[in-house]
User: Fold these one by one.
Assistant:
Number 1:
Amino acid sequence: MIDALNWALAMTYAWLKAGHIIFVIFWIAGLFMLPRFYVYHQEAPEGSDEEKRWIERERKLRRIILTPAIGLVWLFGLALAYVTSAWAHGWFQGKLVLVLALSAYQGWLVGYGKRLAAGGPRIDGRTLRLMNEIPGIAVIFIVTLVVVGRAYS
């Protein structure tokens, strides 16, 4: 009976981890793309068909990739934390803070995109290009915390 339970727990962990990694990849890819879309959007003439196409691309990226991915990242991640009892570990707490920050970053990006589509004030393209690096820097810290930090706990 214990062997069957251990096998079930191991399989649950493996599937949760696979799902988490898959949707993290989708989420981070979307976070890399969205600021770049905004740069191209802002370079299009206001009111043009090109601008309208960028607005639609941004909306689809948010609706089809980013929103489902962030939800599934959180779902699989919290399930993994529960299954592994990761809550008390420092590496997990650090990861959680960074994932919360990335989630807030996505929220800000979505809000900016909606304001941009409505003709609101624009951020210069250089700033958006620099902001494009935020997910990559966060991933470096998150992966280091999980892989290296977990090895020491």
Number 2:
Amino acid sequence: MAGLDKTTPTPQDITVHSQSKVLQVSFSDGSDFRIPFELMRVYSPSAEVQGHGPGQEVLQTGKREVGIVALESVGNYAVQPTFSDGHESGIYSWDYLYFLGSQQTALWADYNARLEKAGTDRDAPMPEKGGHACGSH
């Protein structure tokens, strides 16, 4: 069901902390994660961020202050946030939220390495969108 792994614990509570810019998710296995909105935004599972295949990922910058303005349920397996920068196409399954929460240290390290390789930093503005028009952006 849309990437939902049957072995992944399910959320027991989800709280949007607008001031501290974190999504707090408590899972059935006792795990409790505080996932920064910025991390969620730069690792959005959307085609806009992930591309349509390996090597097509779009490095996200300028997302440190991004907020979540709405959080909608998607069936019984995911949530879909609307971010303050207008991004709303990412659907975060329970297993993906668990992954983001449990792998934060490695994900931040990977993000910083990709920024360095690109010669930019996390606060740089996003470049203007090119002429890509697949309809999913």
Number 3:
Amino acid sequence: MTKHEARAWAKARRVELDRQTVGRGMAEMLFAMPQWQSADTVLAFAAMPDEPDTDLILRRALAEGKRLLLPRVLTRTEMDWVEIPDLSLLRPGAYGISEPPVGLPAADPAGYAAPLALVPCLAASRDGVRLGRGGGYYDRFLAHYKGERLLLCPEAAVADTLPCDAWDARFAPEEILTEKGTLL
């Protein structure tokens, strides 16, 4: 299977998702994990229309006093991270994704205490391959990120195997979170 074919498969699987139910299930699993409980900073994302809803996660991070960083697309190959103190500040950005406005300064995730990165994907394989949308934003970020991380993937988008290039980020089974828990 090529990456193009894998993305088509994953997008077809996502059409059937109940975004709120899957997002709520992931959030409940996440909130019980030690990675969440020990995180002072959460790097997350505002969900796209075909992704599990992350609103509960974003709201809870702020309610618990965690610092919340969200990505902002700069170019077709670059994104930065911005600390967001209030979700009402988010605006439609690149690709229609809600993101921090241009007026807020970029932040370096390495400068934050106890970070936990929540990473989106189209699909994941049981052996840890992350299939993204093809822009490479998260692969470039993860190549240098040293904190805790979890890949958020609906159970319906977990495959036995997926195509992988050398630069693609890989995840351990215990780092892949579905609405039913981690893969390990």
Number 4:
Amino acid sequence: MTVRDLPFDAVFSDESGGNIKTPQSEYSEHGRFPVVDQGKALIAGYVDDEARVCGSGRPAIVFGDHTRAVKYVDFPFCMGADGVKVLRPKIEADLKYLYYFLRQVGLPNAGYDRHFKYLKRITVTLPPLPEQRRIAAILDQADALRAKRREALAQLDRLTQAIFTDMFGDPVRNPRQWPNAAVLGDVADIVSGVTKGRRLNGIEVRPVPYLAVANVQDKSLNLSIVKEIEATEDEIRRYRLQKNDLLLTEGGDPDKLGRGTLWQNELPECIHQNHIFRVRLKSDQVHPVFLNWLVGSERGKKYFLRSAKQTTGIASINMTQLRGFPLLVPPMPLQLEFASRLEHLASIRSGQTRALEAVDGLFASLQHRAFRGEL
């Protein structure tokens, strides 16, 4: 079997030019033609203008110049306005094979700099066309398994949201008329965390793990990278996290206000930085799991958007606004039942997550072997 190694420019034609680009401000939620930009999602929005369809609707690979995202697009689409590179083969080659090849290329991460210049320096390995199609078919099957696992996890997330609404009703309208006179400051102690770069004036310190904004996701933690900070024993005592502390980010994108999760002693000792609020319940009126979901619900989002300070697309809330968050207080037995249901679903989700990790590992192995000629 003859395998060729060709420079990028000998394989790919950059067909980005000559197309009408669609700025994000013109995206619609529905329309005749999808818009593909450099974001993570395959489809970013829709437009109705047929004149914007890229390259007569022929299949293409879309590369995000800033994001390094690689997408296979086999339907008529319109280009996003910034950082979109549309690639098609200029020689006889299988487009899906080329897509998988580009996905496994390790480009340097230059932040929001442009990355197409790095992509153009690569060498493309091309086995004969039938072998390209065979490899693409195998990777397609493995990728389809990954997609099914991810969809199963998404279904579990939707089920959890449905359970919340079914048990408590719409938290914005409160049709079941749960008591709503209390605010968060009535039932919880709320503090912000330790400040980086503060003056310690020679006081003895020791390193301790601390949570930054990137660690706190919507109802989950990302502990892949946990940094340490030098802190005094008094600071560690004041800011040390305890089981069922609700962690909320101070700010970020407006649609992410109220983002937070519960701490479940994932680390034996950990504190938090000042851009994260720690909410520690001091009342038995509210269950921490219910509180997490209430704060992250539409009720929370609407309240924080009304209250937040917004500058250049970034929104932030302060301690006073968080303390003033208007609660709903359903009966505790109902809150306990909700927490029990979520615990059961979390067990199922954990199994699905492990299965996805196994499939991801299989895909990475297949991909590695495929482009080393070992598949």
